[in-house]
Amino acid sequence: MTRLFAVFLAGLASLALVALAVLGPALPAHADTVRDGEYWLSEFGISKAWNVSKGAGTTVAVIDSGINGHIPDLQGAISGGTDVSGSGQADGQTPIGAEPEHGTLVASVLAGRGHNADGSPVAAGSVGSDGVVGVAPEAQLLTVSTWLGSANPSGRTDMQQIPDAVRWAVDHGAKVINMSLGSSSPDWPPSWDAAFLYAEQKDVVIVAAAGNRGAGNIQVGAPATIPGVLTVAGLDRQEHASVDASSQGVSIGVSAPAEQLVGDMPDGTYAQWAGSSGAAPIVAGVAALIRSKWPQMSADQVINRIISTAKDAGAPGHDPIYGYGILNAEAALTANVPETNVNPLGSIADWIRVHRPDAAAPPSAPTSPSQPPSTEPPLAEATPPAPVASAGTSPWPAVVVLGFGGLILVILVGGTWHVFAVRRREAEKR
């Protein structure tokens, strides 16, 4: 039996915890609660890392629901875009899908420029005193809009959109790709192999969100399980593993803030949100800072700098809750880090050789963006940020639904207990 597979944006940790709270227009500089809310800039070494780099000259692709680059905090940040869903606009700047606000929130955390006190956009190369400033405010963004989390009107599936998005981003100059999205399975379809191998061969850093327990993702799912991808877990305000806004798995590389985040909405207002979707662009921003400072540095070495300078947390060394530890942006930009010739998180090329030995064509062969309709079974729709549908609409017999729900509940309780156990051990050490 073919395993159900669905890709969805990893933004909302849970409806009860992070119902989007619009904060309204930005306040004057002396009382800008939006900028004051970006605690990660100072507490995770980002503002100090800006003494070395602000991301100038680096292009980062955001594969998401589309970015509205016309709002004040993002004007001038978008250098190109496309739509791979067949349902959006050609420039990728029209928010689409089940969570249309998601891409703009992610982009603002990654490369927002803020705005002037009078509400006007800042000049090129400048950072405004008000509004959201991203981790890499001088980086350029590519927006690749996808339709995820609900039925795509055009019929293009996740299996078609994701590889097309990755390949387009690589071909248009992205040195870092942010994927704040996840799937219902740790496995990924063979249709993804060539695109991720292509990115690896072209020396591109791919950063992905680990997923959120609050949205039902107990374990990390693809693309965050793909070898070589830098997977980011979420932290709460006290730098502990987030119970709701994170997940767990052996592929996690580093941890970053995922709760009490602030970001831009497509209509120019602000929102408070949570999820590993917000942790991923913080790390992708740091990767952009590194690639700006050292343009010739390999993707393997960029990833190595980020994880080897992280502050160890949880069990000593690498663990499935924090990865190699908590992000330290200042150290990632200033520390002496031994050179490496391999990605410490693995290689998709090696994985393909072992696990897809009978592939009909070389994995690196280009794929056509206009693929024929998929012969795979229809994908299960992911849960959008809206009330859960009535059980009466389910096509499954009630006993199957209840049994599966019970299994998920057991896994959720077990995963949450494990996180609390880790926290308790940390407290005992102190």
Automatic annotation (TrEMBL):
Superkingdom as given in the UniProt entry? Bacteria
Instruction: Give the transmembrane region(s).
Output: 396-420
State the residue spans of region: Disordered: 358-390
Keyword Protease found: yes
Biased composition, class Pro residues, residue ranges:
363-376
Q: Which UniProt keywords apply?
A: Hydrolase, Membrane, Protease, Serine protease, Signal, Transmembrane, Transmembrane helix
Q: Where is the Peptidase S8/S53 domain?
A: 55-325
Q: Which residues form the signal peptide?
A: 1-31
Q: Which residues form the active site?
A: 64 (charge relay system), 102 (charge relay system), 277 (charge relay system)
A Pfam match is: Peptidase_S8
The answer to keyword Protease applying to this record is: yes
Q: Which family does it belong to?
A: Belongs to the peptidase S8 family.
Q: What is this protein called?
A: S8 family serine peptidase
- Name the source organism: Sinomonas terrae
Which lineage do the record's taxonomy fields give for this organism? Bacteria, Bacillati, Actinomycetota, Actinomycetes, Micrococcales
